[in-house]
């Protein structure tokens, strides 16, 4: 019976593990360069979204993933506002092979962070007295697959840092 318990403990030590430790705003900015004139014009927004992710290994099996959403909204030819949020998370990730680790950091973690970043961005924009952005969901798995294809075509190796 003791051997079975010990084998079970050994199996648990090598089993893949994932847990979210903390989610936080790392950086936040908002600029409305044409205020208050922009509020007196017909509102016909043109939205440009930039999305970026970075990951960094911390001590042990901890990793920080940062999702950056940058939005520039123009009304006609003038910038109405620029808003950016860096939503970050610390994740404990153990016992994954290199491909699974790369996918977890490049797609799975950003999928977790996106709703927080979207809510933070919407709140920031409405505090600037603009309509909420209501960004559509993002398929990080598809973006990750596209990036892997691009890197493979360019002869680059995926990076875990």
UniProtKB/TrEMBL annotation:
It comes from the Bacteria. GO terms for biological process: protein folding; protein tetramerization; protein transport. It is found in: Cytoplasm. The keyword Mitochondrion does not apply. GO terms for molecular function: unfolded protein binding. Its main location: cytoplasm. Gene3D superfamilies: SecB-like. InterPro entries: SecB, SecB-like_sf. The keyword Phosphoprotein does not apply. GO terms for cellular component: cytoplasm. Homotetramer, a dimer of dimers. One homotetramer interacts with 1 SecA dimer. This is Protein-export protein SecB. It comes from Pseudomonas reidholzensis.
